[in-house]
Write a structure and sequence with these properties.
The protein is of the alpha/beta class. It is built from 15 helices and 8 strands. The structure holds phosphoenolpyruvate (PEP) and magnesium ion. Its EC number is 2.7.3.9.
Length: 330
């Protein structure tokens, strides 16, 4: 079994019916890089930058961030790295951010609904400028994309893009080498507002990435970290699946690439459904890549599509699970 999974690393992630599915890894800590290399992932679909800020005593400056990002980008060679700007929020704490007087860590009565992600960055643009600059410089070392977290409004993307382009112009003027052309800028779709407006948002970005961890939480009003409502927190709830389906359709209509990077991207039982919903790019925990690839290689698109149609017609989570189970057994 281990050997079989090791062998998979070098095999393509093409379906039995021929379609290529992009399988990438999520990176939460730099220590995961060797694991990602071993997994056979085709790049990093989500680099969470929060680790740079967690437990930091001082804010990481542009130079510190550049060291980390350029190290990862170089290590990935020709494979792309999608770097998400700081998604500070809710349950996470940062001494560094608190020290310089940024709220969003304890001031909000309901942090998940408070100043987090892009909201915090736009409130403190210097933070976003330093991060954009570090990422733009790292992009000179390889293939990079940039993701904005917790978007609910097209206006947030517009302002972030203005800052992005201004930072790029400043670096160029100074003769500093940056990614050329500028790395694509994308938005996380992880709130119901963003999912329902995905077509509009897609017109303002170069790609979309569906974050089902938060999308599930906000759609079902069930905290992703709460044991009390763990049984309600279910990404297979028909409401969540309907949203995912709508986002994929909207992205295709706007001819913008769309990927999915929540935990369900790494669940091989759910892979046929996600492919059937139209996704061609999934980003997951590195250790999940071989098993998901196995499912991709043994599935036919037509069967996945039929499964997705049947799943979307169901109204009960139990019936959806049963359909996935049956698909696996056949
Ligand atoms: C998500 O919300 O699904 C996501 C990928 O982001 P995070 O888990 O970092 O909130
Ligand atoms: Mg999220």
């Amino acid at each position: 079994e281990r050997q079989e999974l090791g062998r998979l690393r070098r095999l393509s992630s093409r379906m039995a019916s021929g379609e290529k599915i992009q399988l990438q890894a999520n990176l939460e800590l730099p220590g995961e890089l060797p694991l990602i290399a071993q997994s056979g992932a085709a790049g990093i679909g989500l680099l969470r930058t929060e680790f740079l800020f967690i437990n930091a005593e001082t804010l990481p400056d542009e130079a510190t961030q550049y060291e980390v990002y350029s190290g990862v980008v170089s290590a990935m060679g020709s494979d792309p790295t999608t770097i998400r700007v700081l998604d500070w929020g809710g349950e996470k704490q940062s001494d560094a951010l608190a020290q310089v007087g940024f709220s969003g860590d304890g001031e909000d009565e309901n942090p998940a609904l408070g100043l987090r992600g892009i909201r915090l960055l736009l409130r403190h643009p210097a933070l976003l400028e330093a991060q954009f600059a570090a990422i733009l410089r790292a992009a000179a070392k390889g293939s990079v994309q940039i993701l904005l977290p917790m978007v609910t409004l097209a206006g947030e993307i517009v302002v972030a893009r203005e800052i992005y382009e201004r930072v790029a112009r400043r670096l160029k003027r100074k003769g500093i080498e940056i990614g050329d052309p500028l790395p694509p800028l994308g938005a996380m779709i992880e709130t119901p507002a963003a999912a329902l407006m995905a077509g509009t948002l897609a017109r303002h970005v170069d790609f979309l990435a569906i974050g089902t961890n938060d999308l599930t939480m906000y759609t079902l009003a069930a905290d992703r970290a709460s044991a009390e409502v763990a049984s309600l927190y279910d990404p297979l709830h028909p409401a969540v699946l309907t949203m995912i389906s709508g986002v994929v359709t909207a992205a295709l209509h706007e001819r913008k690439p769309v990927s999915l990077c929540g935990e369900i991207a790494g669940d091989p039982r759910i892979t046929p459904l996600l492919i059937g919903l139209g996704l061609r790019s999934l980003s997951m925990t590195a250790s999940a890549v071989p098993r998901v690839k196995q499912v991709v290689r043994s599935s036919r698109y037509e069967d996945c599509h039929r499964l997705a149609r049947r799943v979307l017609a169901e109204t009960e989570k139990e019936d959806i699970r049963r359909l996935l189970e049956e698909f696996r057994e056949n």
